[in-house]
Structures are given as structure tokens and as C-alpha cells.
Design goal:
This protein is mostly helical and 237 residues long. The chain has a single domain (2-234), classed as Glycerol uptake facilitator protein, CATH 1.20.1080.10. The protein contains ten helices and no strands. Helix 2 packs antiparallel against helix 8 and helix 7 runs antiparallel to helix 8. The two termini are 26 Å apart.
Length: 237
Amino acid sequence: MGTQILISETIGTMLLLLLGDGVVANVVLKGTKGNSSGWIVITWGWAMAVFIGAYAAVAMGSGAHLNPAVTIGLFVAGKTPAAEVPYYLVGEFVGAFLGAFLVWLHYYQHFAGTDDPGAKLAVFSTGPAIRGTAMNLISEIIGTFVLMFAILAIPTVWSLPGPFTVGLAVLVIGLALGGTTGYAINPARDLSPRIAHAILPIPGKGSSDWGYSWIPVVGPIIGAVIAALVAGVVIPA
């Protein structure tokens, strides 16, 4: 079971990042067909990336977490056994790196043709619209709280398939709450691609902004744990 979870989460998270970072690349890199198409395209793209990645992971036999914060939240909620947690986490971080690598490969010429180092970093990782440690952290906590609470609530009230409804939750989080920090709401989604940005030979890429990098890791974990604890009290078992 552990190997099945590892493979499923790796491939599912790889697809999530390939499509999610891919839509950002299509919008922000110079010369693409989707250049400057805007925030609505990015939020819809990420929502559908969750949908595709999660369905793939479910089909291969995992719980389709695709997100270390979700894995930790489900563990706190008593829905993921401790023995399975390492397999989920490794698959998520490895898969996210692979997805980011494929985006770099797919958009290789457009990375070379883009002068703005900030746009290149934005393909791989999130950053704040207004930099402020406390408020940026709070934004990531709130966004991930909504995601985790929705994941725990959806099965109790709605019969539609989970990946579809979670994709909708990610869409509304991006539309409503994503304007402050870019709504990482997923440590693997941000950290692994940031590492890819740091080590891949991207011309003129600039800084990977490591000073900010802990916020989209710590914030989502805090938000998911709080949501799991609150859900355990207010959502009937």
C-alpha cells in the first residue's frame, strides 16, 4: 500500500504542478499564446489542475492529497494513518519537483525569451502582492483553512465526486483570497518548484526569494491543522 500511495501521489502531484505552473507560464512568459490573459485564466487553470491530478491519483489508488498540508490535516483529523504519512509526503514533494521540471522543459524557449526575472519566478512559486511577514502568513493560514475545512466537509453533505468539488474550492479560494500571496495553500506546490527554479539553467532568472519561502510552507500547515481541529468539533462524525 505504501508504494502504491507513493507512486500515485508522485504522478498526481506531478500533473497538478505541470498544469498549474503551466497555466502561469502561459500567462506570464513572453510570446506565448496565452500571454497577459490574466488572473481568471490562472485561477481556473489551477482549479482544473487539482481536478486532473486528484482524479489521476484516485485512479491509481491513493487518497489524492497532493498537498502536505492536507496530508497533515487529515492525519490530525484521524483520517490518514501515521504509517501512510511519509509515503504521501515524499510523493507530493517529488511529484511537485517533476511537474515544475516539465513546465521548464515545455516552455524552455519562452523562459529564454522573457526578460523579467519576477515573471520567471512566478511560474514556479508564489510571492506576496504587499510584503509583510505577519499578514502574508495569515493569508496562507486562512486560505488553507478554507481548503482543509472544505475537504473535510464535502463528503458529509454532497454526493458529487470529491476531486471535482475540491477543484471548485480551489477556484473560489483563488478568486476570493488569492490576491494577497498568490494562494500557495500547499507546501509542496511552492517549495519543490522553488528548488527547481534555483537549480535549473534558466537564463536571467534572478533570485529564488528564499527569505519568503518559509511562509507558503508553514502557513498552509498551520491552516490545515486548525481546520482539522475545528472540523472535529463542529462537523458530525
